């Protein structure tokens, strides 16, 4: 059965789950963790993608965010591609670091926002990385310590989160702290990591009860929310598809960028793509490679095709960066 397309409308709330390929570690030490978190935060600001909750574990990560105008896919491509390049370079490894398809669930905000913040921020405690709730308040690699005011960053939207718990900050923090503490006894809560009717309704018993009275609910495995929310989201996505760039449009934009940079550098597109050894041609290939991979989220193979060089040549550009 073919997998479904992502729901990627700007302004939707997503619970994103990232895993290392074949459960491999995605961080080796605190330097890796720092780089991942800094990259995530910088992209959050640059791409206007608010992040409300996050937890970075050893072989996976959870992020609760609202997609910006560029959409979730563009944000995630830049986050994961850029991180994987530096990680592979540091550990002299090759190949994929992350599962090819990260998991993302569109979530109904009114019904699930508080639960998702709590679920994500309790991950280090459930995994035994933080061995008590009081120590979780100071745990560096999740957003919980930021909301509690124990640590600071400039990009996490703590005001929005605390706004769900009270109008005054002190009261809101106390209410948030107690709400998260009560979630410890709830355990793993598997319904918060998926979509579909059973998860949205909270289990089979609720689904059966609905069927007994002859009612039906819209559902979608990519969405955690009630029937009206599912219908609204799918209608918005269908409308957005009409205006989404085709692969042909995307290719034309890339070619236009190459032409523009070639004109500024006084070099022909043909010379750039035919392996010219002129110093300015090599410098331009390097510049465009970085733009294509880090800003536009192209794979190294696609960037190499656009620039007329081998994939290994693109990889060398990144490996030689300071």
Strand percentage lies at 5-15%
Distance between the termini: 44 Å
N-to-C series of helices and strands: EHEEHEHHHHHHHHEHHHHHH
Question: Mind telling me the CATH class of the largest domain?
Answer: Alpha Beta
The secondary structure category is alpha+beta
Average pLDDT: 81
DSSP summary: helix tally = 16
- When the domains are counted, the total is 3
What's the CATH architecture of the largest domain?
A: 2-Layer Sandwich
Strand order of the largest sheet: 2-3-1-4-5
Give the CATH topology of the largest domain: Alpha-Beta Plaits
Radius of gyration: 22 Å
Low-confidence stretches: 195-216, 239-245
What percentage of residues falls in helices of 4 or more residues? 40-55%
Q: What's the main sheet like? A: 5 strands, mixed
What is the CATH superfamily label of the largest domain? Transposase IS200-like
Shape: elongated
Number of strands: 5
């Amino acid at each position: 059965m073919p997998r479904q397309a992502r729901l990627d409308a700007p302004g939707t709330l997503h619970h994103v789950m990232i895993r290392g390929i074949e459960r491999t570690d995605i961080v080796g030490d605190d330097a890796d963790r720092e780089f991942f978190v800094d990259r995530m935060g910088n992209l959050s600001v640059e791409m206007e993608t608010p992040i409300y909750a996050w937890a970075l574990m050893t072989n996976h990560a959870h992020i609760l965010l609202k997609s910006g105008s560029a959409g979730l896919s563009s944000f995630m491509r830049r986050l994961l591609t850029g991180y994987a390049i530096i990680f592979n370079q540091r550990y002299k490894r090759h190949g994929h670091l992350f599962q090819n398809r990260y998991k993302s669930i569109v979530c109904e905000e009114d019904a699930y926002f508080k639960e998702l913040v709590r679920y994500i921020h309790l991950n280090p405690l459930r995994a035994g990385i933080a061995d008590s709730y009081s120590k979780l308040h100071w745990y560096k690699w999740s957003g919980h310590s930021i909301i509690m005011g124990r640590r600071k960053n400039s990009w996490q939207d703590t005001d929005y989160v605390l706004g769900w718990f009270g109008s005054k900050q002190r009261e809101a923090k106390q209410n948030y702290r107690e709400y998260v503490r009560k979630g410890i006894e709830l355990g793993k809560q598997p319904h918060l990591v998926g979509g579909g009717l059973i998860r949205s309704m909270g289990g089979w018993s609720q689904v059966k009860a609905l069927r007994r009275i002859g009612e039906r609910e819209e559902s979608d495995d990519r969405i955690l929310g009630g029937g009206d929310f599912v219908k609204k989201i799918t209608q918005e996505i269908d409308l957005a598809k009409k205006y989404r760039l085709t692969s042909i449009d995307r290719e034309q934009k890339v070619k236009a960028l190459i032409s523009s940079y070639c004109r500024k550098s006084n070099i022909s597109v043909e010379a750039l793509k035919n392996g010219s050894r002129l110093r300015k041609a090599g410098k331009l290939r390097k510049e465009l490679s970085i733009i294509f991979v880090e800003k536009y989220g192209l794979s190294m193979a696609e960037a190499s095709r656009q620039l007329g060089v081998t994939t290994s040549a693109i990889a060398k550009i990144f490996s030689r960066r300071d």
